[in-house]
Amino acid sequence: MTDGKRGLSLFWRVTLPFLAGYFVSYVYRSINAIIGPELVREFGLSAAGLGLLSGIYFFAFALFQLPLGVLLDRYGPRRVNATLLLVAAAGGLWFALAGSIVELTLARALIGLGVSGCLMSSFSAFALWYPQERLATMNGIAFASGMLGAIVATVPLEIVLRSMHWREVFHVIVGVTVAVSLVLFFVVPEKISTRRAVSLRTQLREFAALARDPAFWRIALCMGSSQLAAVSLGTLWVATWLRDVAGYTQAEVAQALLLFNLLMIAGYLGFGRLADRLTRHGASTLPLLAGGVATASLCLALLALGVRSGNLVLWGLFFGCSTSVVLSYSLFSRRYPTAMAGRVNSALNVSVFIGMFSGQWAVGLVLNQWPQSAAGYAPQAYAWALGGLWLVQAAGVARLWSGRRLFAASGDAV
Description:
Blueprint: H1 3-30, H2 32-43, H3 47-63, H4 65-75, H5 77-97, H6 101-114, H7 118-129, H8 135-152, H9 155-160, H10 166-186, H11 200-211, H12 214-244, H13 250-280, H14 286-304, H15 311-322, H16 327-333, H17 341-367, H18 379-402
């Protein structure tokens, strides 16, 4: 088989099924930004209740990350992800049939648990099948595929909801989830080297060594604080900001979300390509990562201060530049052996999803401090919510940059 045919076969049989799983996970992640008003009307949710309902997905996701890393390194990304997607399908079906807030919340938590392996299994599969100098690009492609799922949950979903109930939409998503799981089970080949004759005790000891690495904590804090702002806004609260502060209709909100997600795709792909180019020339990727997050933080500060002129540009830059945090995964892939890829990536992901859960719920709690009208939440409340998110994000990137010399061991000192 020629290199071209081999690469095409690898894409269809390995890369695409894993990307499809992450695509589905992002549909689940982002859907509340569009169906949120319907859930509020049907179940009488407060702002904090809506934030908790959306954020519980991330909390369940975070809780399972450390066990997930061990499972990925012991059993391989194919089997782990395929099994978990069936759990997500069960959660999606429960969500579609839920009759109370409690059922909705528990079902969304089950969805979060079920899709918790989609991104990390993709990263683990790429680490097994692709050379290191292509990992940043492949990781960027994985994130971009997720943003395609987020795009489906914008204008296309808003159009579909004109003729279908949100519960019917969930039945369709569940069917797609099951289909992706079956492809992973029966189409994706097994990489024999994923099966390591290493004891669980050894794996846990290696986990402990990772936890003692100060560079790990700098990166984890930056990732968690950045995503606390970017994802909590992008998957829920920027939609209500556009409605309550900028005066957008539901259709206009969906169009703006579509724009933001396209810019995030460009960000993931662009930062990945730039990072791989820097790596090939022996340069550090850390300034690129920190510079992107710092730029996003500046945009968020301006929005929090009340700048309204060109707000779509500021939001677009905020979401696009926040994607630079994806470089953390490829940076750490050079610091630790491939055999630890699952644990390294999932450990980083714990901070990410704790941040997402905290940010989504915290914004709802802030918005609840002002009286809610029939039209939405108080516009003045958003300045405080965005200001708090900015403070956390800025502190995270500042902490990372102050410890940049710690990355000398992985060739990423500045």
